[in-house]
Amino acid sequence: MADETKKTALGLTENFSAMVCYLFGWVSGLVVFLLEKDNKFVRFHAMQSVIVFGGLLVLNIVLGAIPVLGWAVAVLVWPLSIVLWIVLMVKAYRGEKFKIPVAGDMAEKQAG
User: Fold this and answer.
1) For residues 37 and 101, is the Cβ–Cβ distance under 8 A?
2) Separation of alpha carbons 84 and 88, rounded Å
3) Confidence of residue 3 (pLDDT cuts 50, 70, 90)
4) Cα dist. 4→10, 94, 95 in Å?
């Protein structure tokens, strides 16, 4: 559970920093991961953001290159991505270490 009063290297509270990791997808995750050196909770969320939303970006690019069927699947992936984005931000802000299968384990290893 995140400490809402604990400050991070970014000068923000721990839970707010964790939420910011997801705000702009993999980009904000990467920025926070590079700037936050000590807080493992925030680093976990930052790396999970990079893995999940970077993976979704690659998936959408691949699906976009496949005519008709790929486009149809991409249309389904988009709303699921939005729901996942919101859930991850809320969970991070609440101080929960919510792990996405596979990506969460990878993020945990990278975060230290």
Assistant:
1) no
2) 6
3) low
4) 14, 9, 8
* Segment (H or E) for 109: helix 103-111
Nearest 5°: the CA angle 25, 52, 73 is 100
pLDDT tens digits, one per residue of 25-81: 999 999 999 999 999 999 999 999 999 999 999 999 999 899 999 989 989 999 999
User: What ranges make up the beta strands (E) of 54-100?
Assistant: none
Q: Residues with Cβ < 8 Å from 31, sequence gap 6 or more?
A: none
Find the radius of gyration of the CA atoms of the chain.
15
The amino acid at residue 46 is: A
Q: What pLDDT, on the 0 to 100 scale, is given for residue 6?
A: 81
Joined tokens for residue 3: 């400490």
Task: For the chain, give every domain's residue range.
Answer: 14-111
Query: What is the number of residues in the chain?
Result: 112
* Token digits of residue 87: 């859930």
Give the integer Cα–Cα distance in Å for 95 and 103: 18
